[in-house]
């Protein structure tokens, strides 16, 4: 059975009779015809849309037909008295779809009453499915000519729009230039959390200004980003004042080197402890001594590098303080870079230990198949049977024994520095998520949501309008979604949500000695 959907504006009961215009969508795949009614035709017609039919008001006998239109409906109001108040039922007749007359008895007809202004002002409307009728209707209403027809603008609105656009254009050009510079330097900046944040911050500003110019107003998304940026800057200034009050006239690079010295001493003490008999474990003395001295050399080399760079660090901290004044998110990015700088030597040791552990695990796994008479076939990605020669079995057994007895020593270093690596990426992941939440702090969105403004509406509430006969009539109303959905819809388009932590992948990487990357 064919389905007929007629979307009627809620203000239609006060309109004068006339031809209706809007948009007709015939979904032949699902056998659905949709008549999106926007308004009554004015002469001359300002909006180039389809003529859908004729609205005769409460006069049922006043109707028209048009042979030049293949799709046509006549809509009229049937007055009813309910609770001493006059209400209306919307009735249909003379329905033509693709030049064929359709009877209400042979099709499933529904009239949906909607609020044009509420649907048009809804800025974070969620498109639930690809066949969402209200999203399709909102897209039709979103055209500039229809917006101007529905929302009558005063001189104050026009002047306000012009002022807002000029201010946005004033800031847009330097922001676009700085974005082009950072994008050109991105191959270098991507190795720094601060560099990536500067690039992302400029991209967010460019998106915000372009959105204001395109929409000619401050939307809920742009307003939320503006207020979040202001809060970010205020928190940054407050944090700088607290730091300056606590450290006084002490040079920041000296504080960094003092803390780095403590880290180096602690790490040296840890390696010296591992070179002995940690927790009473009997490790391979020669192999343990080689690994310990190798790691101590890298720690000493990194500390020497920091001492040599001390004059450069003084200048770098002056530059970082300038960036820190732009907001607390910049300070969080600087803290992440300093954390990576101070712990770089421990990361190097972790990489060496992880690679060595991975080689030994893969070697022991491959040699264990030798005793079973099997080998891995990388071309077919499977394990096949194989016959080995006695000399191959002898050499394989010898190598397996060596790797097996060296494994405890490797495992001790690997487990210790993997634990340190987990702590470091945990701190780095916490800083990343803290920076994200400060960037999108939903203050403006929350006030719009708590007061249930039209701009914060993101879904539709449809209820049945009781009637005795004729097509089913539904009344739709824009409503505010739960807070979690509303907040996610107000995140700027240029800011991506951080990916979820894949605990299974982390455990698998730890077991097999694969490298752990930042969260």
Describe it.
Among the domains are: 2-150, no CATH class; 250-374 and 404-442 and 497-512, no CATH class. It is 55% helix and 18% strand. It is built from 16 helices and twelve strands. It has helices at residues 116-121, 133-141, 144-150, 155-184, 186-189, 193-215, 220-247, 252-274, 285-308, 310-324, 328-342, 344-372, 390-439, 443-450, 483-489, 503-512, and strands spanning 2-9, 18-27, 32-40, 50-55, 72-82, 85-97, 100-102, 107-114, 374-377, 382-385, 457-465, 472-480.
Key traits:
single chain, 519 residues, alpha/beta, ten-stranded mixed β-sheet
Secondary-structure blueprint of this entry?
Elements: E1 2-9, E2 18-27, E3 32-40, E4 50-55, E5 72-82, E6 85-97, E7 100-102, E8 107-114, H1 116-121, H2 133-141, H3 144-150, H4 155-184, H5 186-189, H6 193-215, H7 220-247, H8 252-274, H9 285-308, H10 310-324, H11 328-342, H12 344-372, E9 374-377, E10 382-385, H13 390-439, H14 443-450, E11 457-465, E12 472-480, H15 483-489, H16 503-512
Parallel strand pairs: 1-3, 1-8, 4-5, 8-12
Antiparallel strand pairs: 2-3, 2-4, 5-6, 6-7, 9-10, 11-12
In short:
The protein is 55% helix and 18% strand. It has 16 helices and 12 strands. Strands 7-6-5-4-2-3-1-8-12-11 form a 10-stranded mixed β-sheet.
Strand content: 15-25%
Average pLDDT number: 83
Helix and strand content put the structural class at alpha/beta
Number of contiguous helices: 16
Strand order of the largest sheet: 7-6-5-4-2-3-1-8-12-11
Q: Give the biggest beta sheet.
A: 10 strands, mixed
Oligomer description: single chain
Q: How large, in whole angstroms, is the Cα Rg?
A: 35 Å
**Secondary structure: number of strands:** 12
Helix content: 55-70%
